[in-house]
Amino acid sequence: EPEVTQTPSHQVTQMGQEVILRCVPISNHLYFYWYRQILGQKVEFLVSFYNNEISEKSEIFDDQFSVERPDGSNFTLKIRSTKLEDSAMYFCASSRNQQGNTEAFFGQGTRLTVV
Amino acid sequence: AQSVAQPEDQVNVAEGNPLTVKCTYSVSGNPYLFWYVQYPNRGLQFLLKYITGDNLVKGSYGFEAEFNKSQTSFHLKKPSALVSDSALYFCAVRDQTGANNLFFGTGTRLTVIP
Question: Which A residues 9-68 touch B at CB under 8 Å?
């Protein structure tokens, strides 16, 4: 069964450093997302991406964040200058289309720890 | 504004007994509703969804969920729990006329006791 894969599974970084989280969405999916979950809190939407541009983004997704689809398979989330409060589990997801009734498939997550 | 409430952080049930994981939602329009399950060290796995039509929807692993519009609820159920059902369960909602992103609840940890 096809699945969304994320690397690395765990990333530790120093405050102020840049990090790139990587995702390979399901191959025939066209709509991509990043969500995050701070420990003990709910899963929160960050950004959605379709047709090589951002479709929607939340208030969390400020200028420190960026997304890119550098090639036909990868989808990345970059945090330019990490803060302690960026520590969270980051989930990548993809869906076949952008219709609201279509379920998203999630990766296993990257746990980011900022020290 | 869209939101989801999962009133129970933890649900314990004996193996073989029926289980219910509760979810209520708030959207301005009509909802699309989803249940996801998260096993340790795994991503969120899709279980089932409600789009329209029959209020009782069936999903993976014998789970089902009942949409109740008047109570704005979408409780997850299973007639007979298995130890392997122990996991973290998330309810999520999208407004049919609003943004395409999912709004999640805080999750309910289900423990099935042998």
Answer: 9, 31, 33, 35, 41-45, 48, 55-56, 58
Tokens (6 digits) for A78: 């970059």
Q: What does each C-alpha distance from B65 to A60, A104, B7, B104 come to in angstroms? A: 31, 18, 16, 16
Cα A47 from chain centre: 8
Task: Please give the pLDDT value at position B10.
Answer: 97
Give me the residues paired with residue B104 across strands. Answer: B92
Distances (CA, A) of B48 to A102, A105, B92, B96: 11, 12, 11, 17
Nearest-neighbour CA in chain B from A83: distance (Å):
23
How close B104 comes to chain A (CA, Å)? 6
Does the structure show a pLDDT above 80 at A98?
A: no
Q: For chain B, say whether A91 makes contact (Cβ under 8 Å).
A: yes
Q: Is pLDDT above 90 for B28?
A: no
What count of Cα atoms within 13 Å lies in the side-chain half-sphere of residue A35?
A: 23
